[in-house]
Amino acid sequence: MTKTILSVILCGTVCAGFVGWRVHVHANQSPTHVEIVFDASLSHPEGCESVVGLAEQSLRTNGVSKDSTLTILVLGDASTANEPWQLGRYASPVTNKVLEGKAANTRRQEVLLSDIQRKCETFRRTSISPIFLGVKQAVADLRAHGCKAASHCQVLVDSDLEENAEISIKNALNGTRNTKLALPAPLDNQGVEVSFCGLAVTAGRTVNQSGMEIQRALPRGQGRDDRLRQVWRSLFTQPDLVRFEPFCPLGHT
User: Fold this and answer.
1) Between 20 and 30 A from 223 (CA), which of 42, 100, 102, 163?
2) Is residue 49 part of a domain?
């Protein structure tokens, strides 16, 4: 009888300890936040489908919870002093309420994706790609929302990576040496995964809204593709958290 009582007490203690540990972990675990950076330049002829596709993908990211947020930044131009502007910030459409169920989550996701699609179709194309500044502000925004070393926050960048605003990066991408123009200090992406997609989606020639050619792109080859990856990896303190995909996922809204 005594052994039975001791076993029950021991089991209860272990279970209570496990539950307490889980509560402690959950309370101290920062939510996963995601930032999408979209290159709206004419040299990157990707449409809103890729923005919606990335948003849809982010909602399936491991660690996304009801406390997570999704923010979409669009690269700026002269009208914003090259600073990116916010297309929208969204609360995660995930709910843990059993009574609402999976169907409610699906409906919330559809509303969110439709709103992104609608807003995306209203902005105009630009002739400049301040990609580094856009990514820098996205990382800073994640830090402001509590992303730290132990977090699994993400920056998803939809761009061909042809930077043409930060001259030092542009020169490095073109293989031009200029000792007077050093690359910017690497961005601290500890705890932030950075994914570039859309590298293969680039225009051979850039035309403005009236159809006049304003820029001709340098030919792509294995050497330039490798240099793109090498240069952009060097711009982060944690290059192992940086990856590249030739194409972005496309949405189905």
Assistant:
1) 42
2) yes
